[in-house]
């Protein structure tokens, strides 16, 4: 995705994690609220890793912050390199087969529980499209 951007080519990528949360054959998509870039697009929840965190630690923290849930992180799904004009990112996706707590939205406007096949019809954030495809190949 993206392409070569000379301004960011020398910067290390920002490490980002995302969760494909699955429950009873459906996966959770979260719609980005109007306060964030790519507002209105659907995504797999997650966020930036902090210094010293493993991917799974970062994912658990991000899901607590964004959705107020305690995630049981399962298998690694895939990583996707993203190059944008103002930044480069490496997105690491993990399967979350179970979680505790009640979902509360803190930075999304809504959620949807959909089958993976239905998820492709949603306006997904571009970085999440290959993650969905990788998840579907694993099933």
From TrEMBL:
A single GO molecular function term of this UniProt record: 8-oxo-7,8-dihydrodeoxyguanosine triphosphate pyrophosphatase activity
InterPro entries: MutT-like (IPR047127), Nudix_hydrolase (IPR020476), NUDIX_hydrolase-like_dom_sf (IPR015797), NUDIX_hydrolase_dom (IPR000086)
Gene3D superfamilies for this protein: Nucleoside Triphosphate Pyrophosphohydrolase (3.90.79.10)
Domain Nudix hydrolase: 12-137
Keywords recorded for this protein, A-Z: Hydrolase, Magnesium
GO biological process: DNA repair
Domain of life assignment: Bacteria
Name of protein: Pyrimidine (Deoxy)nucleoside triphosphate diphosphatase
Swiss-Prot/TrEMBL cofactor(s): Mg(2+)
Taxonomic placement: Bacteria, Pseudomonadati, Pseudomonadota, Gammaproteobacteria, Enterobacterales
Transmembrane annotation, as ranges: none
């Amino acid at each position: 995705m993206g392409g070569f951007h000379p301004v960011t080519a020398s910067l290390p990528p920002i490490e980002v994690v995302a969760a494909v949360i699955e429950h009873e054959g459906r996966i959770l998509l979260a719609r980005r609220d109007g306060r964030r870039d790519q507002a209105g697009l659907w995504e797999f929840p997650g966020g930036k890793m902090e210094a010293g965190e493993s991917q799974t630690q970062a994912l658990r923290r991000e899901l607590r912050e964004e959705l107020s849930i305690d995630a049981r992180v399962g298998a690694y799904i895939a990583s996707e390199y993203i190059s944008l004009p103002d930044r480069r990112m490496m997105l690491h996706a993990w399967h979350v087969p179970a979680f505790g707590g009640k979902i509360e939205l803190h930075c999304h406007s809504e959620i949807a529980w959909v089958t993976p096949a239905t998820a492709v019809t949603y306006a997904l954030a571009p970085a999440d499209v290959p993650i969905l495809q990788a998840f579907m190949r694993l099933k």
